[in-house]
Amino acid sequence: MRILDRYILAEWAKVFALTLLSFMGLLLLSEGYNWIPDFLGWGASFGTILQFMLLSLVNDLSMLIPISLLISVIFVLATMNRNHEISAARAAGIGMWRLTAPLWAAGLFLAGLLALLNAVLVPDALDAQNTLVEEAQFAALKSKGGTVIPKGQAYSVSFENAKARRLWLISNLGLSTGQAFEVIVHSFDEKNREIRCVTARFAEFRKTPQGWRWTFRDGREMRFDPATGSLMAQPRFKELTLPDYDDDPEVMFYSTKDPDKLSLREVSRFVDQSGSNPGGQNAAYAMRYHSIMSTPVICLIVVAVAIPFSVGAGRISPMVGVAKTFGLFLTFYFLTSFCAAFGESGALPPMIAAWIPAVLVAAWVIPKLRSVN
């Protein structure tokens, strides 16, 4: 590594660390303002509150890393440009690609770190954070003599298995008990015409080497003519097992949660069963999955945008470039939110909606990079 590379990396690392720590401090204050009164009301200990706050910092890193990288890269390059250090380097025969190689390496490293955070660390932190909240709430309810909902219990579950063309409606789903009450399952053909409807007072499910096995009890199986929609038969049954009904009850449980609160492992299981580009309510879960997958690319886009944004003619103050980053960040955030809304509603395929902002920014910045070089 050349002395110039070490110098650029050192200057960037100082600004990046200060920016990241500043944002983390602000978000920590916000989280404390929102959650500490609740934990105190539940009677939680200081250790529980501290653990929750530290987990919040881990969850916020995936959002703070790209914006901190953008501000730090622009500040460092604008400072070098104002001090004519970039002009001196280019006069010595060093091109912009080679000059900014340390920043590209930092962006690549942070992209890998962001992928690791989204795939492993953030999901684990989110699960642990939700567990702390649930345990504190349950402890408060028990101390007051209130009714506690068992963990893994969900009411009014609606789950669409797009791959198998089935719609499940369950009044009460218990993962811990392996039972579901008031179950209705609609089955459709390739043209989305109903061909079967199974209703049962309750059902039992268990996992086997071949997959999940559902046993329906005390119900009725109705079969329909797909061409006319007329009812052909509706025999009652005491017990019914359908081998092709292998839907995952854990994935059904995920459908009762907010997609933004699901980890990559959970949302990938959901998408694997419901399809990568579903419509209806499942589109929001697929959008969450593809958003997580596309997030690491932002770090490389940030470096690409920062270079032409901060290197220009004249001795421009670094703070001018930093100020411009907020406008640029808001524009990118608006574009991402706009595309996400279309993806969550099913108006656009979630995979396309998640990648459109990155593609558009790349198409805009590549010609500027060439002109700067």
List key phrases describing it.
seven-stranded antiparallel beta sheet; alpha+beta
Order of helices and strands: HHHHHEEEEEEEHHHHHH
The residue fraction in helices comes out at: 55-70%
Count of runs of 4 or more consecutive helical residues: 11
Q: Runs with pLDDT <50, length 5+?
A: none
Tell me the strand percentage band: 15-25%
The biggest sheet, with number of strands, parallel, antiparallel or mixed sense and barrel status, is: 7 strands, antiparallel
Question: How many β-strand runs?
Answer: 7
| Rg (CA only) | 27 Å
**Gross geometry:** elongated
> What is the average per-residue confidence, as pLDDT, rounded to a whole number?
85
N→C terminal distance: 22 Å
Helix/sheet category: alpha+beta
Can you offer a commentary on this structure?
- This protein has 373 residues and is α+β, with helices and mostly antiparallel strands.
- It is 60% helix and 18% strand.
- It has helices at 3-42, 46-82, 85-91, 96-99, 101-143, 249-254, 264-274, 283-294, 297-310, 318-345, 350-372, and strands at 153-161, 166-174, 179-188, 194-208, 211-224, 231-233, 236-241.
- Strands 1, 2, 3, 4, 5, 6 and 7 form a seven-stranded antiparallel beta sheet that branches.
- A hairpin with a 4-residue loop joins strand 1 and strand 2 (166-174).
- Helix 10 packs antiparallel against helix 11.
